[in-house]
Amino acid sequence: MSAKIFLIVHKKSANEEVVKAAVKTVQKEGIDLRVLVPWDQKENLRIIRNALGKGVERIIAGGGDGTINAIVNSLVGEAACGLRRRSVFCRSAQRMILRAAAVCRRMI
Questions:
Q1: For position 93, which CATH number holds?
Q2: For position 51, what pLDDT does the model report?
Q3: Structure letter (DSSP) for residue 104
Q4: Which of 42, 38, 8 is nearest to 23 (CA)?
Q5: Measured torsion, CA atoms of residues 11, 21, 49, 92, in degrees rounded to the nearest 10
Q6: Which domain holds residue 85?
């Protein structure tokens, strides 16, 4: 079974002890979480495509504004539908990611 939540963490944040502890805590609670560390922005797009193809329920960006921006841009780029629907998708995806980022920041 594939992970239902993908946490995409910036490579600078991936080795921080607080991030590792948070991930372990979440996984111990039985939450299906997969942690991915992209090498560059092109890797972000590959991860997003992979996540969408596997039907993940949530994508969480872990890092700073640049990480959130890269993930949102990758999600928006994958929206293959009309402009009206795309804008709704974009707003929803951005809200979801910003909420998740806020939660991650509170954990740290």
A1: 3.40.50.10330
A2: 83
A3: H
A4: 8
A5: -110
A6: 5-107
